[in-house]
Specification:
24 strands, alpha+beta, binds 2-acetamido-2-deoxy-beta-D-glucopyranose, single chain, Beta-galactosidase, Chain A, domain 5, 19% strand
Length: 818
């Protein structure tokens, strides 16, 4: 045993002290007066991020932010029939009809939270209440999870559930069940204890608790002779020694084991005298050293049990009382913080919106994962990838077909993922949006995630847009999409988040929970470390996505500031993020993409502000110069008088520059990214016309991706050709607010009205699908408002959390109009 026994009163005193210290730690201002204080604060902050449900592809999967370390998770199934058990087993999140919603009702990355899984197929509502005690011990501390199940309405109250918790160790170390309770074949009567040691974790103990005294857990009974040696009121443990690469495939491992165990039972009792199903699908009780341990319980009706992880560096192990107290305290703390930083404003100042907003935010943070592994890259740098010839897409396809793919890494990434069942990995274009609600909640966590992304940058300045690290991540991605190309860019949305950080610093945010907001030296150090990487990425983007202004007699303020996404085909520009949005046909090397130029503008403006914070005056001037050139060029190259809006540009049959206008999100980009001059009365008026016209982009459910008047509206894949996307709508709302609150804008009144209506339309649309289906969705149908495509899309759809927290201007609008 790692922990010597101590008198009970001493434990109570120590626990009280720990709780007191934890409260103290979060209430005192996180400001530091010396560099040593700062380091201590940063270390404490880092510790509190060590553990989490960082395997968001699982319904419940825990791991530390350490490569090749412990993997823990839950699997379960209903077992009252022989048939269908395999399909009933849950482990990885899937787009299932039989799960009626799941996710975190509350979640804070540093403390923990509560998740509910409405498992209709298994007739059970499962809860996982996860609590971290990061200040116990010198490392990431303790954690615990209380797992409970309640039969769903319409199912028998004695529904039989088979539930497994597992612990696996990928790297070096030790993992071994201990205790006097190991009884060959009969199962464990009390707690199952697994002791271990691993790099970065030191020694630890994992305890899967048996039924407490007075517990109301019930277990199936039966008269079959196999019950003599395998009583279901016991807990079973089976240890395995497996190749490290297999350790994430927990369900196949379980099935293989069950099959061999069932074969033995068949042999012993015969086909006609098999044990009942709840007895049949029980693992063999064989504990010993190994790198994976399955722990199984079988319940009848409602149940509850705890799993406690104790760090060996703490004086006392984690207890169920601590878990109970933590659950209560965290819930209260979550609600308090929510009210202080993201409280929904009118007309959303009602309990149903608050609960909805809390869930979305919690799912966004509960969807943060830690990934580690190798990745596939084509670094051939083929000439074809410059896309300089006519019909270049046929050449690039051929070059890609040569398949010069190498395996790189391993690398690690800490990231908030777009969707647990469908996109459980890092996406560069999504991340900046994910972090916009998170930065208000936990600025330091946000900065950590940004740092993690920039640690992936290569010497040229490239960051792969989709991070598919290791075999587990690859198992979800078709082979042709696994390879990343170092000439492919993606919208640099992390610069939006960094801009928000700098804006908070400039405003002198009083958020004492953030080290970086309350210590200018810490902020300076962070930005100073990141700044060269930001500049490298910016330079890489400008170089590799450069457009050709000079060859086609284009008249523009600057001959440099024009850009073209690489990776184009006639049907798609996946790299732009707006995959099938209509562009010039056929593709042409002389194209200029208005969104690409706008994104460069976003980077230039953020870099200028960061340089200014760092007192890099020469560079401030340099970025300001770029900014001016971009602002001028966006009008010179992309404003089409004939259409009265911004458009892409291409080259016509006479080799002359021509606009390609498909009104929709692409036409709004200079407005959305802040590179458009909001004082330009006429142009802003036309942008507002387009946004507000229900024959074009306006709908009852948000701003459509493409105008209803466009010939391609709703055609083909119809991915970005009509549906409402919340990320783009969020940017629209932000700019409308800028105009509505500008003291001088002549469009104040109209912007206020559009802002007020759009806020309402978006929030109510996302809420309605949430209520109807139990899920947030990837996009919304502009006609019906129904959620479509990917289910459980709690990535940027969660921006409605921010939209609800934005100010209510409906009163102001009315006053203005009177
Ligand atoms: C934060 O913790 C992780 C995991 O223990 C560790 O790998 C990393 O070096 C730590 N970072 C800092 C800045 O302390």
């Amino acid at each position: 045993m790692v922990f010597p026994r101590r008198p009970q009163w001493l434990i109570q005193v120590l626990l009280a002290l720990l709780t007191f210290l934890s409260v103290l730690q979060t209430t005192i201002a996180a400001s530091a007066s010396t560099p040593e204080d700062l380091t201590a604060l940063e270390t404490a902050s880092n510790k509190s991020l060590l553990w989490g449900p960082y395997r968001p592809n699982l319904y419940f999967g825990i791991r530390p932010r350490i490569p090749k370390s412990l993997l823990l998770g839950l699997m379960w199934a209903r077992v009252d029939e022989y048939a269908g058990v395999q399909e009933n087993f849950r482990h990885t999140c899937e787009q299932h009809n039989s799960i009626h919603g799941y996710g975190w009702d509350t979640y804070d990355t540093r403390r923990g939270g509560e998740q509910t899984i409405h498992d209709e197929g298994n007739g059970i509502d499962l809860k996982t209440k996860f609590v971290k005690i990061p200040n116990a011990g010198d490392d990431g501390g303790h954690w615990g999870v209380r797992v409970s199940g309640t039969p769903r309405p319409g199912f028998p109250s004695d529904v039989k559930t088979n539930i497994l918790f597992y612990a696996a160790l990928e790297g070096l170390g030790r993992l071994e069940p201990v205790g006097d309770d190991v009884e060959e074949e009969k199962g464990w009567r009390g707690d199952v204890v697994i002791e271990g040691e691993a790099g970065g974790l030191g020694s630890f103990e994992i305890k899967v608790m048996g039924d407490e005294m007075g517990s109301s857990n019930n277990h199936p009974e039966h008269g079959h002779p196999s019950g003599e040696t395998r009583r279901l009121d016991r807990t079973f443990l089976k240890s395995f020694q497996l190749p490290a690469e297999a350790l994430w495939q927990n369900l196949p491992i379980l099935f293989a084991h069950l099959k061999s165990s069932i074969d033995k039972l068949m042999e012993e009792y015969g086909k006609d005298n098999l044990p009942p199903p709840e007895q049949l699908f029980v693992i063999e009780n064989e504990g010993g050293p190994g790198n994976m341990h399955l722990v199984q319980k079988v319940f009848e009706g409602a149940f509850e049990f705890d799993v406690l992880f104790s760090s060996g560096s703490a004086p006392e192990p984690m207890t169920s009382e601590q878990l109970t107290d933590g659950i209560k305290a965290n819930k209260k703390e979550f609600e308090n913080r929510f009210k202080s930083v993201l409280k929904p404003q009118a007309p959303f100042d009602k309990p149903k919106y608050q609960q909805f907003s809390e869930s979305l935010l919690s799912n966004l943070m509960g969807g943060i994962g830690y990934f580690y592994g190798d990745s596939k890259v084509d670094r051939s740098g083929a000439d074809e990838y410059l896309e300089e010839n006519e019909e270049f897409w046929t050449e690039t396809e051929e070059a890609r077909g040569k398949n010069e793919v190498s395996t790189e890494g391993p690398t690690e990434l800490f990231t908030s993922i777009p969707s647990r069942p469908f996109f459980p990995r890092g996406f560069l274009w999504d991340e900046g949006f994910h972090l916009m609600p998170i930065i208000d909640w936990d600025t330091d966590l946000t900065l950590d995630i940004i740092k993690s992304w920039f640690s992936l940058i290569d010497d040229d300045g490239w960051i792969a847009r989709e991070q598919i690290l290791g075999p587990e991540a690859r198992s979800k991605v078709p082979a042709e999409f696994q390879v990343q190309y170092p000439h492919y860019a993606n919208p640099p949305t992390l610069f939006i988040t960094l801009q928000a950080f700098v804006d908070k610093l400039r405003k002198g945010s009083s958020d004492s929970s953030s080290i970086y907001l309350s210590n200018p030296e810490a902020a300076t150090k962070y930005l100073r470390d990141l700044y060269p990487l930001l500049k490298r990425h910016y330079a890489w983007f400008r170089r590799t996505q450069a457009g050709d202004i000079k060859s086609y007699d284009r008249e523009a303020f600057s001959t440099k500031e024009g850009y073209r996404w690489r990776g184009r085909t006639p049907a798609h520009i996946l790299t732009s993020g707006l995959d099938d949005y209509p562009r010039a046909q056929p593709p042409h090397p002389g194209e200029l993409h208005v969104d690409a130029l706008s994104w460069v503008g976003t980077m230039a403006i953020a870099l200028k502000d960061i340089a200014s914070f760092l007192n890099e005056d020469d560079e401030v001037a340099e970025f300001a110069g770029h900014e001016t050139a971009i602002r001028r060029n966006v009008d010179d190259l992309h404003w089409a008088d004939e259409s009265g809006i911004y458009c892409d540009a291409t080259v016509d049959q006479y080799d002359e520059s021509a606009h390609v206008c498909h009104k929709g999100y692409i036409s709004l980009f200079p407005f959305l990214t802040g590179v458009m001059d909001l004082a330009d009365k006429e142009k802003v008026g036309k942008v507002l016309d387009l946004i507000g016209d229900d024959a074009e982009l306006w709908s009852e459910h948000g701003i459509r991706s493409l105008s209803r008047r466009d010939a391609l509206y709703g055609t083909g894949e119809n991915y970005w050709k009509s549906p409402v996307w919340v990320n783009m709508n969020y940017l629209v709302v932000v700019r409308l607010l800028d105009i509505a609150t500008s003291p001088t804008s002549p469009h104040k009144t109209r912007a206020t009205r559009l802002y007020t209506d759009l806020r309402k339309n978006l929030v109510n649309t996302v809420l309605k699908s949430w209520q109807d289906t139990g899920f947030a969705w990837e996009q919304y149908n502009p006609e019906t408002g129904e959620g479509q495509r990917t289910q459980h899309f709690t990535g940027w759809t969660s921006l409605v959390v921010k939209i609800m927290a934005m100010p209510d201007l409906s009163g102001a609008g009315v006053r203005d109009e009177l």
